[in-house]
Structure to design on (233 residues):
């Protein structure tokens, strides 16, 4: 008689294996919110699978909330916090514009935490990435080019440098909400001053000065809030 502890082995469909691999990359933080997957033709070669199996897997991941298809028909990693936060908070912001300052208040608590822990945990590679974002912001700003995206990328990179796998998802969703609610006012901020503030934060993180990094982040976000309040009148 066969022991009941043994169960028949079920052969997984190829699409399920693809789903599990991509899902693991997202959960492990190797694929982050806002990252784009390679084009379908390239992904088929990388995974050594057929197009029908890949398309079935991507459709399943979109349904699970791990991926989304952008307007340009590219496949992007979705923030896992979107379904919990994005739509409900969007409705609150639409009903009461003053709520945006409550969102900025939450941002301060999260981003000062990010700066503090990034100073403790950032790797040399994280530091290089942060320095590159700051340098890019300076060059674009000197040329009179808007740096709103680079500003957001800088803050998201700090959240990644905490090496807390959930934090980038929360930050990505918060930045999505900020972009929709007050993004247009960010163009009025003096980005030369923002560059200096970012530079100070990076130097503190690089020196592993956690308290200083957190304090400088709060100072920076207070400056941003002051400008938004002035723009809103």
């Amino acid at each position: 008689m066969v022991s009941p502890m043994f169960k028949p082995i079920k052969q997984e469909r190829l699409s399920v294996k693809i789903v599990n691999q991509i899902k693991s990359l997202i959960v492990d933080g190797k694929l982050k919110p806002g990252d784009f997957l390679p084009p379908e033709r390239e992904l088929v070669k990388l995974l050594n699978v057929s197009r029908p199996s890949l398309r079935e897997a991507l459709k399943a991941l979109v349904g699970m909330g791990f991926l989304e298809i952008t307007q340009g028909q590219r496949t992007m990693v979705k923030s896992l916090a979107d379904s919990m936060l994005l739509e409900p908070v969007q409705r609150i912001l639409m009903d009461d514009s003053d709520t945006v300052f409550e969102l900025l208040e939450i941002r301060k608590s999260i981003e000062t935490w990010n700066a503090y822990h990034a100073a403790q945990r950032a790797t040399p590679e994280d530091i290089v990435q942060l320095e590159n974002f700051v340098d890019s912001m300076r060059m674009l700003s000197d040329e009179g080019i808007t740096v709103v995206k680079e500003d957001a990328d800088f803050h998201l990179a700090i959240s990644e440098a905490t090496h807390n796998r959930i934090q980038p998802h929360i930050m990505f969703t918060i930045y999505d909400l900020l972009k929709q609610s007050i993004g247009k006012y960010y163009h009025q901020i003096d980005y030369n001053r923002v560059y200096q503030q970012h530079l100070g934060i990076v130097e503190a993180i690089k020196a592993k000065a956690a308290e200083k990094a957190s304090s400088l982040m709060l100072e920076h976000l207070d400056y941003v809030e002051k400008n938004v309040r002035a723009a809103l009148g």
